[in-house]
Amino acid sequence: MHGEIASEPRALGLCPDRLERIDGWMRRLVDDGKVAGLSVMLARGGRTAFFRAHGRADIARDVPFAPDTIARIYSMTKPLTSVAVMMLYEEGRFQLDDPITRFLPEFSDLRVLTGGNRAKFDSEPARRLITIRDLLTHTSGLTYGFMEATLVDALYRQNGVDFGETQEASLAEVVGRLARQPLLAQPGAEWNYSVATDVLGHLVAVVSGQDFADFLRQRVLGPLGMIDTDFSVSADKLPRLAANYSLFRDRTLKLYDDAVGSRFARPPAVASGGGGLVSTASDYMRFCRFLLGRGELEGTRLLGRKTVDLMLMNHLDGDLASMGQPRFSETAYTGIGFGLGFSVMLDPARAQIVGTPGEVAWGGLASTAFWVDPAEDLAVVLLTQLIPSSALPLRRELRVLTYAALVD
Question: Do residues 383 and 368 touch, judged by C-beta distance below 8 A?
Fold first, then answer.
């Protein structure tokens, strides 16, 4: 076991004995072979109250999962990309209701799927253009190829619309392929988790005139002091990269992506704003503290407080369940809305989980998660490397354990 407690929990309104339940939960997950290793970091009032790591980052090499273990955070990249977008918004480069065709004209003549098959599909014209806000809120009509649930998903796979680890085309090329596919729904009509944030990464590059990865490093990651967060892992840090595992139906762990031979050992062709980053618990907690600081961390301000407030509001007409049929496992649907880059808790009773209205959260494909609760001045980061994220209810269990420890 590795970890630290930087502050006396009672001084932060947390019960030490109840925090130890989190440690016991972590140990059981490792001992039962459900995860290879994991870390949990909890901060309140800007101070660390709990930070532990258990298990192995790499089973074959017998490398412990440590506080500084580097993990693939996949879709936890999205909130960082959204911050980059909102920084340009604050510079007056665009309005949220601007159509993306102002910068990406290839999305001018979109059509929406109505039926058919891959050989011949039926479609109708989009009733309006996709806006920047549509991309930020996943109401653009785009989807993901890996969902494997609709004809549009299949067309993405067939036509190389993939911003993932094996892509060899450029970001601009993949966005161009995407623009030639039909939409899953009319813009603004439904909430569908999608490659929208990858399009936002390209939008950042076009608007700023700077490579997206460079923009994120220089304008977001660097100023926030996120020293281990990037789209690849340098040779000197590679020993800290965790291996990634899958949990099979027989409840055994199998290697999904090694650390030594990982594609993250070299810079990718596509810097995926939707899922391309690796990070550490400490790094991502700095981002959480930036959100709790309403755009400022340790004297460095990247966004105005009113901009962060806008990001943390629900931008849907209701919750996720009322906006279509969500097909992903990063959050519940009922009682949960969506802001500009992450989910927003609307009603814990309807969501059937302990929590606070106004807290924001998101997770990643390898079962990582974070949430920020402004009302409680609380932030939690969970890192592990287990695919898929629906394999275990880690996020919900950790939420219950965390909120049960609040005693002030």
Answer: yes
Q: How do 278-279 and 296-297 pair as beta strands?
A: unpaired
Cα pseudo-dihedral 263, 268, 273, 277, rounded to 10: 40
CB 374 within 8 Å of CB 43: no
Query: Based on the number of CB atoms within 10 Å of its own CB, is 339 exposed (0-12), middle (13-18) or buried (19 or more)?
Result: buried
- For the chain, the distance separating the N- and C-terminal CA atoms, rounded to the nearest angstrom, is 29
Contacts (Cβ under 8 Å, ≥6 apart) of 260: 61, 238
**Cβ contact 315:133 at 8 Å:** yes
pLDDT band for position 296 (cuts 50, 70, 90): very high
Residue whose C-alpha is closest to residue 388's, from 365, 363, 369, 364: 365
Please give the pLDDT value at position 3.
Answer: 53
Q: What is the DSSP letter of 30?
A: H
Q: 231-281: per-residue pLDDT in tens?
A: 999 999 999 999 999 987 777 899 999 988 888 999 999 999 999 999 999
Q: Given CA atoms 241, 216, 166, 340 in this order, what sign does their dihedral have?
A: positive
Q: Is there a contact between 255 and 265 (Cβ–Cβ < 8 Å)?
A: no
Q: Give, in degrees to the nearest 5, the angle at Cα 336 between 53 and 342.
A: 60
- CA distance linking residue 406 with residue 394, whole number of Å: 19
Q: Is the bond preceding residue 388 a cis peptide, omega within 30 degrees?
A: yes
Asked whether the whole model's pTM tops 0.85, one would answer yes
- Name the β-bridge partners of 123: 113
d(CA 4, CA 114): 55
pLDDT tens digits, one per residue of 361-388: 999 999 999 999 999 999 999 999 999 9
